Amino acid sequence: MSVDIATVKRVAHLARIAVTDEEAARMEGELNTILGFVEHLSEVDVDGVEPMTSVTPMAMKKRADVVTDGSKAEDIVANAPESTDNFFVVPKVVE
Predict the structure, then answer these.
(1) Cα separation of 32 and 27, whole Å?
(2) What is the rounded CA–CA span in Å between residue 32 and residue 2?
(3) Angle at which helices 5-14 and 21-41 pack, to 10 degrees?
(4) pLDDT on residue 16
(5) Residue 43 CA from chain centroid, whole number
(6) Secondary structure (3-state) at 88
(7) Cα(45)–Cα(56) distance, rounded to whole angstroms?
(8) pLDDT tens across 40-79, in order?
């Protein structure tokens, strides 16, 4: 896949970036180099390679998956005009 100047200008327009003809010509070469590198990467055989989260082996830090109230109920209702048992009290509206 290669990019031409019209495609560079269209992408720049979609990204709301103003580019001159000189900049578009330079970007055409840069984008074609990047796309060539990506195509080159597609030739690598990755069958059987396990995905990694880091370049060094390490155990992921995980928290216990438990339901809590966040221990911030008092902080949340602290600025409320009126609250009862850590719940907001609002006027009853009946129409």
Answers:
(1) 8
(2) 6
(3) 100
(4) 96
(5) 27
(6) strand
(7) 21
(8) 988 999 898 888 878 888 887 888 888 887 788 889 899 9
